[in-house]
Amino acid sequence: MVPLLTTLTAALLATGAVAHPGGHMNRDVLRRQAHLDHPERRSVEHCKKDLVASGWVREQHMRREARLHELRVAAGFAKPHELVRRDPAEVEENYGAEAACTLDPEVTEGPYYVAGELIRKDLLTGEKGAITHFDLNIIDTSTCKPITDAYVEIWGSNATGVYTGVQARGNGDGSNSAVFTNALRGVQPTAANGTASFITIIPGHYVGRANHIHTIIHHGAKLLPNNTISGGTVSHMGQFYIEQNFLGQVEKTSPYNTNKQKQTLNNQDILLNMGKQGGDDPFMKVSLIGSKIEDGLYAYVDVGVNPKATRKPDPVNFWTDKGGIPVPGSGWAGYPDTCRNCGFGGGRPPTVKGREAEAEAEIEVQDLDAE
């Protein structure tokens, strides 16, 4: 029997699966397949023994419990003395098998990557949604130790599926209004335990992709006086997702429930499903701070990277004090109609009905192979 992943890859390349509104994701599929096939590929799960033996797993578990409790106390949902801890031995036993404990998918930066973002923890900049205190732990899978000198960059769409810092047909109403804000984008350094912390929101949905947050991991970058970074290398480009049942609850809250775009579910997103292959788990572990989503969320994920790997993200814009400005020669320039990375050979993208038909074809392929 032909492996499911190989069959899916061939089928998707034949049909030209959608990546973002109007864009094909052949590059994404091929990059992910190459990453999975690499003989030296390792995930966080490969480091379980070392991370447990060093005490890192126990330390992170206790830190996360304390952080969630701290957020609950600050919001008035708990008293300082009410912290209840889970048995660390149980956590160590299950590490690498539970949701959001391993993550290693390599995918494209997508058409809305804006370079030059600010180093900052709070990324909200006025955006409304399910406010999320998000911790990312970065692990060197070649040494099985936390990486303490990296810069972690994340970005995602707002609650109604619009990316800031860019203008493109299919990004909201296609106007330039989003160009002048860098909301939900930013960079943070990793601490002594390998953790970078952000305040953002659960991203909204848009046609062709399940809700997700992008990340890029920088090494050896220089901190500039304007609070940005420059130089160095990029070892990892990935995406984080949210468990579907919980995501359904988020989508019922305001302003997510005003989003008129068609939603792609997790089981319909090929990049997400490829991201789960080979022992990877691309889902964020999310907890309520209060009794409901509107009270805020705490989330975390562990990211396994090889610092010696070199990725070359292709930004479409660069952030300045005047907003996002085009990057000369970007492969995403003209997205989704004429860009080099679109996969249409310079032609026009399919219609919305065409994109939806392709999405349905993807689901049928998955169902057939599952049988």
TrEMBL record:
Residues 359-371 have a biased composition (Acidic residues). It comes from Aaosphaeria arxii CBS 175.79. Gene3D superfamilies: Aromatic compound dioxygenase. This is Protocatechuate dioxygenase. The keyword Signal applies. The keyword Isomerase does not apply. It comes from the Eukaryota. GO terms for molecular function: iron ion binding; oxidoreductase activity, acting on single donors with incorporation of molecular oxygen, incorporation of two atoms of oxygen.
